[in-house]
Amino acid sequence: MPKINAYPAKYYRTIMGSVLAGTSLLNLALPVLAAGTTAGETISNTATAEYDNPGDPNTPFTTKSNTVIITVAKVAGITNVPAGFKNLGDPGNSNSGAGGTVLTNHKVEFLFNVTNTGNDATNIFIPAIAGLVTTGLTTSSIEFSTNGGTTFQARPANGIVENVAANTTIQVRVTGTVTATSAGAPVSVRLGDTGSNTAPNSPAADTQNQPDLPDTALSNEVRTETATTPTVAGAPANGQREASATNSVFLGSNPKAMAIIRKTNTGVTDANTTLTPTFTDDQITYNLSLEVASSSPTPRFTPGSLAGRNYSGAGTNPEAGTITLTGGGSVDNSNLILVSDAIPTNTTLKQAPTAPNGWTVVYTTSNSATTLPNAAAWTSTAPTSPTEFAAVTRIGWVYNANSPNSAIAPGTTVSPFTFIVTTTGLNATSGGTVANIAQVFGTTAANGINVFDESGDSSPANLNVDGSDGPGEGDPLSTGVADPASQGVDANNNNTGSGPGGEDNVLSINAPGTILNGPVGQPAASGDIFQPGTNDNNHDFQNVAIAPDAIDATSDPAAVTFTNTLSNPDPTKALTNILLQPIQPSAISSTSSINSRIPNGTIVTVNFQGSSATYTYNNGVFTIAAGTPIFIPSLSPGVTVNYTVVVDLPAAVGNSTDVVSNALIGGFPIPIVAYKDSDGNGTPFLTNGTTPETIANYTVNQLYKGYLKLIKQVRILDASNNVITGMDYLNPNTDKKPQPGDKLEYRVVYRNISEPQGGSGTNVILNANNVVITENGALLPNNWARDNAPTDGNIDTLNVQGSATDTSTGSSINYLINGNATSNGTIDTGTNVTGYKVNIPQLAPAGIPTTLNPDPATPSPGDRTFVFRRLINNAAPTTP
Question: Which helix (H) or strand (E) holds 485?
Fold first, then answer.
């Protein structure tokens, strides 16, 4: 058989197709072509994506990438991947526990598949026991099999398995006895020493098919060596290759305390007895409760009891902070559970909080912006003056889990933790929002594992709903200082928020005698659309989407209905002479050119309680075309009502992800203003035409025609995975002429371009749910995983095992094998992979990117990437 990289010096071209259907440029890693592919053969690649629109999850949206055409080249290498694990049980006790949970003293086997992905036979070197890296294991033997694991033989004395044919796998078996003792501890074997080895059981790309140079032939490597009887004499053109992998399991099931901290507010009490509110003396009462749940959302953990941490500043693993208990409290602070709550921005602590029986209130004046709760200096000495209360930055409650007390058992709920704050920094005339989040810090009694949770949801221990780990206490989102735009919001004030980490409790305090106009159910919402950083209730928004046009097609989009909510927050006075109407975006933006975001010919109809008014938009102006303006004679005190806005875009309008004049079209925003027409001129401005009415509020109804943008890029790597000069992602594809031995790396940069959450966190946003990006190389017009003419019995590209990666949180990659369109699961089976499906549970809005041509190293914040590599197949033909 010909040897990998022993090939003629042929070139191939890469051609990027045009942007398809109004916007989506899918950037999938260019497939590296598989062994045996004829030089000069063209390989075509078009990727697709499907995603659910929250407004209509039963009608998925679809989009395509541009088509990438390449001309074939050839590469070679070796892969080494975990191939399973077997628990033989305890040999000293009749092999008890065989096949079950791994425990101390069990005998175990770790399997690895080592594959010659070259185009010629090669010798493969396997290290001896001394060359392995193990954790929690004493190794007794290393063997190999050439028949798929049916029979094994001892590793040769010189470590050489001779003449392994191209595209042939040998299986390596490592046997040992478990020595790990702590529940949840890893038990692992690393075979080889290449790359980071940071991805047990699913090798990282930098562990596979790496050059053996510049080091020498080391005793701990898994590497190729020139075959004893090669088909083609001489060393491979790209040099010898090596690969490594880590096969790992965990000892037993790890107990973990399933702590849940919950928080609600009881609303606002206005302490001002005058007729004119000032918003500088309102009082907010917060109630917290702590539950130690008796069930776990993931089999990784069994529910355990909640114990404390060491806040003495000395001893075993103390926290960075200290808690000083005085005034009759226990002086033993080595085992304290801490519930912490930062005093919300624009408020101060009014009085001493209340605590459940057995708990002690503590205070800190450490700077909340720079000092985390478990690193602060706490004291149980209560403030005694308004000045001292105003200096408190966080309040907390501690429980001493030392004897005669005990750890809090699963199934226990502790409450109430109560405190009151006074508003001091809100706008004196218009009010604002107050956001807050609570945290709990402890450990699991059985093993001392740290436990941390944040309020706003019902998931324990800051786990995500699916049981995966959410942000830890050291995460930048987990400071305990509320930030609704990044942390999310418990919009219903009942701990039903969802998302990574905790969700803020947000309370809007608005002035009587004003009007509130916002998204459905959220008239007091605040945001920053058109004006980043403003976060006021004139820049809130609600997003809705319709399906994008197919590639090279246009349509007349169907009309879309928004529901908005109007409110009179004054509990004593009615609002009169209220008008509702659409208005040009520049009315609430400092950028007049933003008016061009609305296509000429857009029709907007406002409906309220049987009345309707239809407007047509042209050249920056809404003109009434039918009906009469919506007029509300009176809105009673405290009343909230809904109205609808119907947006009908003109025919042939582009997709929101289309590029026009080097800019994305984006969403189509329709601001709606509700105002008291104090001068009777029928406009939201006073008679002089420039000063807005005193009582007015804006909200934006924004329509997107598709909102998932895909960009496909390619760069060329040499055999050492270095980018070849002039062949990076940003260089013109016509300048990329890879030579034999190079690799094609495809990258899909994808992004939800819709408006991200802001302000109070109660705007209506467009998550892209259940996103599936598909690359099927066996389904025409794709042909990169087919045996194209002239056929030789081999598909034209080989998967580079471990190279497929995706950067979205919670994403998974499914692998298509042997030309099947269905998934073979999340196991990268090796060279027979013929396609990829990336499954992304949810892609949050990221807004318009900073560049339409993502940089090779640093895509815009909010961009996500899917990358894979493929090797040009250079195996010997299997057909005449």
Answer: helix 484-487
Least confident interval from 186-195, 258-267, 706-715: 706-715
Nearest to 727 by CA among 744, 741, 748: 744
Q: What tokens appear for 334 in the block?
A: 């080595």
- The pLDDT-based confidence of 768 (bands split at 50, 70, 90) is very high
Ranked by mean pLDDT, which of 316-325, 730-739, 799-808 comes out on top? 799-808
Give the helix/strand (H/E) hosting 442: strand 438-444
Residue showing tokens 């039903």: 496
Q: Is 875 helix (H, G, I), strand (E, B) or coil?
A: coil
**Average model confidence (pLDDT) across the chain:** 83
| Dist. CA 876–CA 570, nearest whole Å | 82
Handedness of CA 672, 675, 679, 682 (dihedral sign): positive
For 147-199, give the secondary structure using H, E and C.
CCCCCCEECCCCCEEEEECCCEEEEEEEEEEECCCCCCCEEEEEECCCCCCCC
pTM of the model: 0.62
Q: Is the peptide bond before 299 cis (omega within 30 degrees of 0)?
A: no
As to burial, measured by CB atoms within 10 angstroms (0-12 exposed, 13-18 middle, 19+ buried), residue 550 is middle
Q: How far apart are CA 221 and CA 207, in angstroms?
A: 11
What is Dmax (Cα atoms) for the chain?
99
pLDDT tens per residue, range 670-723: 999 999 988 888 888 887 777 888 889 999 999 999 999 988 888 888 878 889
- What is the gyration radius of the CA atoms in the chain, in angstroms? 32
Q: Which two tokens stand for residue 469?
A: 């780990």
Choice between 462 and 680, residue whose per-residue pLDDT is larger: 462
Strand duo 254-269 + 301-304: pairing: parallel
CA dihedral 717, 719, 725, 728 (to 10 degrees): 10
